[in-house]
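Session log. Operator J.P. requested a structure for one protein chain; no other inputs attached. Running the standard single-chain path with token output.
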Amino acid sequence: MTESLVFAPLVDLRLIWGLMALAMALLGFALWKGLRGWPFRALAFAVLALGLANPSLQIEDRKPLNDIVLLLVDESASQGLAARPAQSAEAVARISAQVAALGNTDLRVIRFGDGPDNAGTLAMTALAQAIAEEPRARISGAILVTDGQVHDLGLTPALPAPLHVLLTGTTADWDRRLIITEAPAFAIMGEDVTLKLRVQDEGAVPAALGRQVVLKISLDDQAPLEFTIATNTDLELPLRLPHAGMNVLQFSVAAQAGELTDRNNAAVVQINGVRDRLRVLLVSGEPHTGERVWRNLLKSDPSVDLVHFTILRPPEKQDGVPTDELSLIAFPTRELFVEKIKDFDLIIFDRYSMRGILPMQYLQNVVDYVKGGGTVLVAAGPEYGAVDSLWRSPLAQILPAEPTAKVIEQGFRPKLTELGKRHPVTQGLEALAPKDGWGRWFRQTEVIPLRGQVVMSGAEDKPLLILDRVDQGRIAVLASDQAWLWGRGFEGGGPQLELLRRLAHWMLKEPELEEESLTATAKGDVLTITRHSISDKPLGDLAITAPSGAKISLPMPQTSAGRFVLTWQAPELGLYRLQQGDLVRVVAVGPAAPKEFEQTLATADLLAPSVAPLQGGLLRLQDGVPSLRMVREGRPAAGRGWIGLTPRAAHVTQDLKVSPLLPSWLMLLLVALLSLAAWLREGRGFRRTAA
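Structure written below.
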């Protein structure tokens, strides 16, 4: 039972204060006049004010509530290192026993792990949720068992009681980690980029370990290269990407006995190789209707540097005009085909014929250029089947199609071959056709394919577009000079721009346009794996090797001809190795070392600013589990070997009784009697009686 005095004024408080002010004025006047009954008047006014305030006696039947202690246990990945699980388990057991022994105190054990999407340890988020689920008036303290590596310190909640941190780990712990301090997301092909990295030793590193380490670097799952570097030193690594598209670089150092973990001994960098400019040489053998379309098409692409020459006046032409009066530019054959031929990414021969412009040796240079990794596209017209055809030059060594000297001049609609429906250069082009199909072309040079891949056919199902690989280079033959009709939109036109864009990118060895390719992209923990194949044979399952070494085999569902796509949620973060047949691909899901392993040494520095304002303590479990004490609110709540809890004395009211302090009639009677006493004291009758 708890008794207390409460007031329930019968009138507005301002009226009571006004009456008291008037009473004070009247008492002052009585004192000034020397009236002897002023004490009785003062008592009457006081009783009247008390009656208007309506004092009551409140009796509460209270039931005390137990205090609540929050025990938050960090079960993130870094807490699984060394002896930390055992330390945490012992701390939970000892604290649970001590809280049970206190009496009138309940323990709430909250366990939390890694945050989603590699967010790390979200201890403050877990604490805020725990506080929200309990009455704040009952919380007498919070105890956090962790290694101190918390990643949401900015969300520290306001706590009505002390916050204590019990640190796992030991002062003898040490760890070695590989840090990529600077790495570009993309790099221009042919140009050097610089990566910056550091091998950092932290903690109580053994003196016998030395300060030299072997760094292994591998690209796209190739055999690694080894370098000896110094630890705790920034290293700049110059790099030139070997191919366009995604390049996956893996860095690693060997694990050492005694270090906390080797999960942070590796790092993965993914750099997308892009071409700065596509340098194209377009040689038109003669003016024709489609020439301007080729030029406009290439000039419209800002990433293309185009050098275009049209042969207007062959050497055998003699019209009597002095050379110095001709407004023509001499064809710089030596400069282009000897000195600077390797500067071009693509050479296009557009209706070119052998008219004595290029010596045979220069065309042999083109052959060598292709075999060494260059690319050539031949857009053939009727001249391809004539006696001065490129086929009758050294280029015949690499051309995949032999002309028959027959020119088919009739309307036809180009179409994809069965192979073309699967080939990435032409795959899906049907979807870009207008409502009535692609527009017609009206001329095609008949050729006999000798090698390579026929991906498009034309009149009478004759080969129209043939692709081939020659040593390290690539070559393509388009057996018609009327692709410009698509560009002009004749009969609805066709996908000229998309076809030539893909053709150029295939010739430049873009990974996404390879006939046999395996690519993968990661978004969060979801992998999208794409397989291109021109084979008509069934493909085997995809073999996946997880970062932990676990092997998984999954089928690749076919989404269209020659295209297989698998969407798969990766069970863990790290580097995955994908293999199907001879194709191998590596892809990183999240960082190679999750956030939990970026910093592994136990530390009190991060949580100290959150604990200090709450009078809590930061103690190492290495020194033993602290004892619990009760301390008053506002007093220091931690010391050597102990932590304190603040008693809250929370309760719930079960019954409430309110009764007047004095009856109203008694109040009125007292006022009347005191007023009468004042009158008698000051009146004549009182003085006579006194005499």
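Operator note: The first strand starts at residue 2 and ends at 7.
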